[in-house]
Amino acid sequence: MPDAAVRELTYGEAVKEAIAEEMRRDPRVFLIGEDVAEAGHPFKTLVGLVQEFGTDRIIDTPISEPGYAGIGVGAAMTGMRPIVDVMFGDFITLTMDQMVNQAAKVHYMSGGKIKVPIVFRTTLGATRRSAAQHSQSLHAWVSHVPGLKVALPSGPYEAKGLMKTAIRDDSPVVIFEDKMMYRVKGPVPAEDYTIPFGVAKVTRAGRDITIVATSSMVPVALGAATLLEAIGISAEVIDPRTTWPLDKQALIDSAKKTSRAIVVDEGYERYGVTAEIASVIAEGAFYHLDAPVKRIGAMDVPVPFSPVLEDLTVPSSSVVFEAAKALCGKA
Amino acid sequence: MTTQAREPRMELEQHLHMYRQMAKIRAFEEQVNELYKSAKMPGLAHLYVGEEAVAVGVCEALHRDDFITSTHRGHGHCLAKGASVNRMFAELLGKEPGYCRGKGGSMHIADPETGNLGANAIVGGSAGIATGAALSAKMRGSGQVAVCFFGDGALGQGLLYEVMNMAALWTLPVIYVCENNLYGEYTPCGDTVAGEIPARARAFGIHAESVDGQDVQLVNATMRRLVERARRGEGPAFLECKTYRYYGHHVGDVNREYRTREEEREWMTGRDPLQTLASRLTGQGLADASVFERIQTDVKTEIDSGVQYALAAPYPDPSEVDEDVYA
Lengths: 331, 327
Ligand SMILES: Cc1ncc(C[n+]2csc(CCOP(=O)(O)OP(=O)(O)O)c2C)c(N)n1
Ligand SMILES: [Mg+2]
Description:
The complex is a heterodimer of chains A (331) and B (327). With 331 residues, chain A is of the alpha/beta class. Helix content of chain A is 38%, strand content 19%. Chain A has 11 helices and 14 strands. Chain A has helices at residues 11-25, 49-53, 65-77, 92-109, 139-143, 156-168, 217-230, 248-258, 273-285, 307-313, 317-327, and strands at residues 8-10, 29-33, 58-60, 81-85, 119-124, 149-151, 173-178, 185-187, 201-204, 209-213, 235-239, 242-244, 261-268, 294-298. In chain A, helix 7 (217-230) packs across helix 11 (317-327). Chain B has 327 residues and is an alpha/beta fold. Chain B has a single domain (8-248, 262-313), classed as Thiamin diphosphate (ThDP)-binding fold, Pyr/PP domains (Rossmann fold), CATH 3.40.50.970. Chain B contains 11 helices and 7 strands. Chain B has helices at 8-37, 52-59, 75-80, 85-92, 127-140, 158-169, 197-202, 216-231, 261-270, 273-283, 289-312, and strands spanning 67-69, 146-151, 174-180, 183-184, 187-188, 207-212, 237-242. In chain B, a hairpin with a 2-residue loop joins strand 4 and strand 5 (187-188). In chain B, helix 1 packs across helix 2 and helix 1 packs antiparallel against helix 10. Chain B starts with 7 loop residues before the first helix and ends in a 15-residue tail after the last helix. Classes of the chains: A alpha/beta (331), B alpha/beta (327). At the A-B interface, helix 10 of A face loops of B. Thiamine diphosphate sits between chains B (46, 72-73, 121-123, 151-154, 181, 183-185, 249) and A (34, 63, 65, 87, 91, 94).
């Protein structure tokens, strides 16, 4: 393998590289949002793009999320390929009509005549001490809606590959980046690659229990797997990478193999991504399971500010470890 | 409230009180910055230093039970409306005696006892709440008014125009106070706001004015007129206050590449709200330097003891995490 293949980038740099490469290869791609140009985004993920692509393609907007999301939809319907930047995942509540009633519906309602190749780029993740309106993981909301695809990169490699796939997709895609992971480094190939949607990744192979984990919860699950290994339990960690399309077969196959499954996701636990995935596994692997599928999501409370409270609301490796131990009859 | 001329003595006291309030906000915010820099405060905070005359001029025109809604840059509004320094610091540190028992933090301080319906981390997010409070005041016949504080950045939010329209249609006692500090985050408001700001309110038939937000006496006098109108049932008003934040967008924004040091110096030296008031009162022979020094000393004592109180205060009990989700 050439050296370039093992080059390391941060998660944030991987996102930027994906956007830059796609903007170079396709003049229809542009990015629109708040403080994305000169400021390079409040999370500093877009620094340098405006210098390369100019303000015609890296467009600063007023603080008007529904407005510029709608402008993105209109541009996508008429030959452009916008990336709409929604700074915090909490603000998708403001863009919801444009995502759900407009972007998601157009292709179907027009009988397949009109495409909406748009990417909504936003964030998830708590523990930044930002309180209830800046800390939510709301990806389940859009995963619920037919017509939208939803990607959840769990590391730098996924951040680049999934973003490139999202930009090339002819349907609306919502991509949630883990804001706590922007400075995490990992190997990212310098060459062009994409990660297909709907293909799960076995992040760690194992025999005794399957831990399905999304986005920010992949490192948490890997941490739990290490703790489990020390007590003789071999955990398989599997990352669906997209909640829609969902690689049901891979999840079912893994659960069949290990006969136990835990699903971990940072969205609110109730009515969440964990519920959907657990039911997929329960239906598909029922006769192979030795225990009920266990779900672990964020606590069902608005995210509190105080660190002593906030940390309790997000699943940790030790919580996943204890649950796995119990499921394996070693409690 | 009546419009009868107040005694000069009372007026001086009122002005010195406004100076004290501004000094308190400034000292509070300087202390918040220290807490951040010494890693004693979780998360970030948006400092109000430089904008004190707006919160104080506005809130000193209100009664205790009048409503305000605040913003992510809200410490000044809360203090100006009567919040205690101790409980503010405690909230910023995520401690149990804080205004929200540590659940809200810097961007969510609410204090119904002083009419503060809450700071808000969604830009423009409180425009509906303030307007709804005004509708409620009208329905209940309480005579209260509601003030909605928001930044120039919030002018981008459609919600504001929906509620201004309804406030005008229904003659609601609400005053929209736009704190135009020239920037929303790292973008100059000239790049995000088309047309004249007060004209947006006038389009709905709302009485609108623009004032120098660094002149606390002017802000206060203007606001008193607008509040009286609203209480008389003459409907909503819009007040643009031209102001400036001395620090970055938040405590971590220390380089401020999006604006020049000259611009900062101009605002800080020529138009500082505390200096402006102090030199005016001194020039009029109504007070001398020792008066302001004494106020500064008092305020410093209050802030020092407030921060000590908060540092020593306990964290909430972990069992509180799922309390208060429902009423
Ligand atoms: C709906 C929404 N969009 C974006 C943000 C991120 N954000 C926080 S403060 C801010 C700038 C606000 O500017 P302005 O209203 O002028 O207030 P200032 O900070 O200048 O006091 C932005 C964009 C947010 N909190 N809410
Ligand atoms: Mg502003």
